[in-house]
Specification:
Radius of gyration: 22 Å
Helix content: 25-40%
Structural class: alpha/beta
Strand content: 15-25%
Distance between the termini: 40 Å
CATH class of one domain: Alpha Beta
CATH superfamily of one domain: Periplasmic binding protein-like II
Number of strands: 13
Order of helices and strands: HHHEEHEHEHEEEEHEHEEEHHE
Length: 309
């Protein structure tokens, strides 16, 4: 029996699908399948019922998986304490980051972080918030970067910054002559949003809560990509809201309007299981991110925090 095998059964319980579980563990499907089978043969117990769709644990399997999660958490804590006195961060860590933050934040700090922490290997995966929360609970993820608050007693949140929402539109005059927009100026017509599952979608709907009640929309499109929605806006097919850091090109300034104070913002934080003790990793990530993010998200004082659910 190995810790890796325990990780495989925890992932398989989470995904209930061999290929998806293998992807979560960064191994091939045959590798995961063989190792789970070997574990079952070694202990003489069937952990998963292969005759059900989706795959489900057997009654004894549920007990063993719960114990595996506990063992993995203890093993992680052992490693963190054992290496806590070293001058640098050594080892491999998994980082989950939501898709509406990853493409804009990672390029700002990742190169600097890796250069200053050469003994650290990060396995980075884009994941939606709910999957990050589950992975932090079961020990298959070390650290996450999400929009908070999560209001989860088992998860610790370390605030990074407040990121303003911006109005993104083809013709700014459609929302008045001022460069500043009011939330009340938003209309239900042609609002383009992300598909369900993205916390950013929920935040946009929370901001526009009074303007999306109408069902008489001439056009409705939901996407998994902010960039796709931006391109539709540029084609004059609607408008949307975007996070401040997604404006990476000066040419996009012609499409954006800022909200009046207090600005609606999303809180972005590092999140870890409350039992995570690798403080040096948290401190160094926090330092690199805060040193490399633009000034416009460092100096937000007058804001309203928009909840993600």
């Amino acid at each position: 029996m190995t810790l890796q095998q325990l990780k495989y059964i925890v992932a398989l319980d989470h995904k209930r699908h061999y290929i998806k579980a293998a992807e979560e563990c960064f191994v091939t499907q045959p590798t995961l399948t063989i190792q789970v089978k070997k574990l079952e043969e070694e202990i003489g117990t069937i952990i998963f019922d292969r005759n059900t769709i989706p795959l489900t644990p057997t009654p004894i399997g549920k007990i063993l998986i719960a114990k595996a999660k506990s063992i993995l958490r203890e093993a992680n804590e052992f490693n963190e304490i054992a290496y806590s006195n070293t001058s640098g961060i050594t080892g491999q860590y998994t980082l989950g980051i939501i898709p509406t933050i990853a493409p804009y934040l990672l390029p700002l700090f990742l190169e600097s972080f890796l250069k200053n922490n050469p003994l650290t290997k990060l396995i980075i995966k884009e994941m939606q918030t709910e999957f990050i929360i589950n992975a932090l609970h079961n020990g298959t993820l070390d650290i996450g970067i999400v929009s908070t608050p999560l209001e989860d007693k088992m998860i610790r949140e370390i605030n990074l910054y407040q990121e303003p929402f911006l109005l993104y539109c083809k013709n700014k005059e459609a929302f008045g002559s001022s460069e500043i927009v009011n939330q009340d100026d938003l209309t239900p017509d042609n609002l383009l949003i992300l598909e369900e599952g993205h916390c950013f979608r929920n935040q946009v709907l929370n901001i526009c809560k009074d303007s999306v009640k109408s069902k008489n929309k001439s056009f409705l499109f939901e996407s998994g990509s902010i960039q796709t929605i931006k391109n539709l806006v540029k084609a004059d097919l609607g408008y949307t809201l975007v996070p401040e850091l997604s404006i990476t090109d000066k040419s996009e300034q012609q499409h954006i309007k800022h909200f009046k104070d207090p600005k609606p913002t999303r809180e972005v934080s590092i999140v870890v299981n409350k039992n995570f003790t690798k403080e040096k990793l948290i401190e160094n990530l926090l330092l690199e991110i805060k040193n490399n993010i633009p000034e416009q998200v460092k100096e937000i004082n007058n804001y309203i925090k928009v909840r993600w659910k």
